[in-house]
Amino acid sequence: MKKWLINGLGIVLALGLALGGLGLMEYLLEEKRTRALSASGGLDETGLSLEMAKPGRERRILTKEELRQVLLAMQGREVPHEPLEGQLSMEQAMELGKSWVEELCLAELEWSGEQKYHKMDARLCRKQQESSRENADILYSYWTVSLESREIGAELTLHAVTGQVLEAKLSFNKVGWEQEDSKYLCAQVFSDEAVWKLLDHYADSFGLEMDQILLLDDDRACKSLNQGEFFAVAKTGSSAFSIWTDESTVTEAGEENLLYLSITLEDH
Please, what is the end-to-end C-alpha distance for the chain in angstroms? Predict the structure, then answer.
């Protein structure tokens, strides 16, 4: 009996030491990770908080100063990289891109019909200036998401942590009618009012104070934010599109509408 009790106490003591050692190891690893983030990714020289997104936490948007620093960092040579902890995965980036196109753009432009994308792609990158080392902070990366359906094409630049759309290029066309082996595409026309409304919703997505200033040119609308600190810009244009036949012959047939949206630090 005494021997059994001693053996039992020995087993309990061994388990306790093992669990304690495991807990101590996890604590030390967490401390090491925290110190590494503080040195390279937790806080940068501007004092910006680069707190990582955690599962279950509501996605935040960039603060005014963070957005300014992110836009300033969008210059230089593009450097692809793998997702870091706290950044969106490829699947998340593509889903956010699809939702943004369909729930914001297409809804505001009164575009009917569900899109079936036959091409989807995403790349995670950051910019590196020639005269400086690569900036590894997680807030300075972005996803480029490409979507293409029969009727629309989208090239989006999404912030790698928040998923906010920093820039978008959208092309629109619709199948007007079909005759035997040919498909004729015709461009969808959007009113100025629809584009202005979309610009308002796009500008509002950054959570900044919107000024009552709307600058208008023939093909451009520009919304001032935070008393001219930022500008949300919508540009329209067009490009040629074609007719495809079963014989793979291509004949220029007309134009498709293009729409550009961006957030910038300058009115240009």
Answer: 88
* ∠ Cα 226 229 230 (to 5°): 90
Distance CA 124, CA 159 (A): 10
- Give Rg (Cα) of the chain: 26
Long-range contacts of 143-146 (CB under 8 A, 24+ apart): 143/88, 143/90, 143/93, 143/97, 145/93, 145/94, 145/96, 145/97, 145/120, 145/121, 146/119, 146/120, 146/121, 146/122
Render pLDDT for 212-221 as a digit per residue (tens, 0 to 9): 878 888 788 9
pTM of the model: 0.71
DSSP state of 102: I
CB-CB neighbours of 54 under 10 Å: 8
DSSP label at 59? P
The widest CA-to-CA distance across the chain, in whole angstroms, is 96
Instruction: Give me the pLDDT at residue 71, please.
Output: 95
The neighbour count for residue 53, using CB atoms within 10 Å, is: 17
The Cα-based distances of 61 to 91, 118, 138, 214 in angstroms read 19, 30, 14, 24
CA 236 to chain centre: 21
Q: In 10 A of CB 245, how many CB atoms? A: 12
Tokens in use for 34?
């925290």
Task: For residue 212, give every residue at least 6 positions away whose Cβ sits within 8 Å of its Cβ, in sequence order, or none.
Answer: none
Residue 62: what residue type? L
**Tokens for 111?**
């575009």
CA distance 147 to 81: 21
